Amino acid sequence: MKIHSESRLRHPLATVYATYRDRMPEIAAYMPDIDRIEVRSRAQGPKGPRLINVWHAKNNIPKVAQGIVKPEWLYWEDHAEWDDQNTWVDWTLIVPTFREGVKCSGRNQFIADGAGTRVLLTGDLQIAIRDVPGVPKLLAGRIAPKVEEFIVKLVTPNLERVNGSLGAFLDAQG
Length: 174
What we know:
Layout: E1 2-9, H1 13-22, H2 24-27, E2 34-44, E3 49-57, E4 75-83, E5 88-94, E6 102-113, E7 116-127, H3 137-173
Antiparallel strand pairs: 1-7, 2-3, 3-4, 4-5, 5-6, 6-7
């Protein structure tokens, strides 16, 4: 499944880029489906920081998936390699519980747009429900659509909502 989102924020490129890169745990308070974001690691790479942020979701698990998906599984790792010169970040999301069954990666590009900033998110989300631990092979075909829908609804909207949340955070900063 292709992921594409484009947003325009009224704040300047340097502010949007630095805030997105460095203040994501603070922005979590502006995301209704996120409980918190923890910075697991940060190291300087050749073009910018390499970050691993851990996102913890607040979502309710649909009944059909409750036997497979546990509340403590509702988190994912965001592995990000920032390119400060080109103002973009290449990212890979890892859902530890579904490490083999969920593949999600992409790029966020930050582009000056007048006095504001355009944020272009492109990525790809692939879910192989048969590779998810705990899914009985006989039931995989029947429950796969519901579990896939749940994972897509868990990850994709949050990828897209980050820009709006970032804008609200910056607006609140004055």
